């Protein structure tokens, strides 16, 4: 497994958030549920976000503890290991409530420190 910089990992997270936004743009919760491809794509990208967060070095996560790193990482673990028990209402809440906040936090972090390793 190659080691990616924190900067690259944060950008991976932002790219996945953007993909989720594109896949769900203009959708209601019912539209989302009815679109298996969108559901699968969103779940995959939530997993990417969690995996990237997990690879961000712990000292960096500790330094930027305003981001709920462990919650993000746990979401990924739940999706990977309990894929038959996915609660799509929780996924929708992640899409509509948590990802916009995370996107803003990551953008601010990247803009504030151009020297991320």
UniProtKB/TrEMBL annotation:
<dbReference type="InterPro" id="IPR051813">
    <property type="entry name" value="HepT_RNase_toxin"/>
</dbReference>
<keyword id="KW-0547">Nucleotide-binding</keyword>
<protein>
    <submittedName>
        <fullName>DUF86 domain-containing protein</fullName>
    </submittedName>
</protein>
<dbReference type="GO" id="GO:0000166">
    <property type="term" value="F:nucleotide binding"/>
</dbReference>
<dbReference type="GO" id="GO:0004540">
    <property type="term" value="F:RNA nuclease activity"/>
</dbReference>
<keyword id="KW-0597">Phosphoprotein</keyword>
<dbReference type="GO" id="GO:0016787">
    <property type="term" value="F:hydrolase activity"/>
</dbReference>
<keyword id="KW-0378">Hydrolase</keyword>
<dbReference type="GO" id="GO:0110001">
    <property type="term" value="C:toxin-antitoxin complex"/>
</dbReference>
<keyword id="KW-0540">Nuclease</keyword>
<dbReference type="InterPro" id="IPR008201">
    <property type="entry name" value="HepT-like"/>
</dbReference>
<dbReference type="Pfam" id="PF01934">
    <property type="entry name" value="HepT-like"/>
</dbReference>
<keyword id="KW-1277">Toxin-antitoxin system</keyword>
């Amino acid at each position: 497994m190659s080691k990616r910089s924190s900067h690259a990992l944060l950008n991976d997270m932002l790219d996945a958030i953007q993909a989720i936004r594109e896949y769900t743009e203009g959708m209601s919760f019912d539209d989302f549920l009815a679109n298996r491809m969108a559901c699968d794509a969103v779940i995959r990208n939530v997993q990417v976000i969690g995996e990237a967060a997990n690879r961000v070095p712990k000292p960096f996560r500790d330094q930027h503890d305003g981001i709920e790193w462990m919650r993000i990482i746990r979401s990924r673990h739940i999706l990977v290991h309990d894929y038959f028990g996915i609660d799509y209402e929780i996924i929708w809440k992640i899409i509509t409530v948590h990802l916009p906040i995370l996107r803003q936090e990551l953008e601010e972090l990247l803009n504030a420190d151009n020297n991320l390793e």
